[in-house]
Write a structure and sequence with these properties.
mainly alpha; 9 helices; globular
């Protein structure tokens, strides 16, 4: 890979990825604080600064390798924002909103990247870097939103389901959490999950672009 290609890669893919992760994690912390848990604030994690949320391997190295290898599925993680459920005013119910905050933030950011793309087109700013960055910004945020909505704890979808289920079943599902990531990996490797997510991302991105007249 040439120096120009490396520079293009860093300029186009890294900023949207970092901000997608930062906003996702910060959203959890802000909503948790709203419902009574100040843990993230006290630990300095209530921030939109990406460096506060970066896990060197999960946030940078693994996604970068997958992008360079043109993998059909990009996987990674950030340092989770700490949330102490017992500090919430209504732990079972409030955790639903705390969990929803991350995917919701990614949806908002996907729409904001589409807004930026529309502005650049209106202003006739012809830049391959900016256009590619905006399109990737939409895709990576949709990917993070959908991936985190998989109903397996510790993913956000699993925590939402724990909050929605009757207490007996929510306790049973909670016990899956230590093995959740391994279960998700198995689903990706052994099922059509990655293709299914890819299909949803394609149609959601298409719908967002059409919404803004593309």
């Amino acid at each position: 890979m040439s120096f120009e290609q490396i520079l293009f890669f860093i300029s186009v893919y890294i900023p949207p990825l970092l901000f997608a992760i930062a906003l996702h994690e910060a959203a959890h912390g802000y909503v948790a604080r709203y419902f009574g848990d100040n843990t993230a604030h006290m630990l300095g994690r209530l921030s939109l600064n990406p460096t506060k949320h970066i896990d060197p391997i999960g946030t940078i190295i693994l996604p970068a390798v997958l992008i360079l290898l043109k993998s059909p599925f990009i996987f990674g993680w950030a340092k989770p924002v700490p949330v102490v459920a017992r500090n919430l005013r209504n732990p079972k119910q409030d955790m639903i909103f705390v969990a929803l905050a991350g995917p919701g933030a990614n949806l908002v950011m996907a729409l904001l990247w589409a807004v930026l793309l529309k502005i650049w087109v209106i202003l006739d700013i012809q830049s391959e870097v900016l256009v590619t960055m905006a399109l990737f910004g939409i895709r990576i945020n949709l990917l993070l939103m959908l991936f985190n909505l998989i109903p397996v704890p510790p993913l956000d979808g699993g925590r939402i389901l724990v909050g929605l289920l009757p207490i007996k079943f929510s306790l049973m599902l909670s016990r899956v959490e230590p093995y959740g990531i391994m279960i998700v990996f198995a689903l990706i490797l052994l099922t059509d999950l990655s293709n299914l997510l890819g299909m949803f991302i394609y149609y959601l991105q298409k719908g967002i672009l059409q919404l803004f007249g593309f």
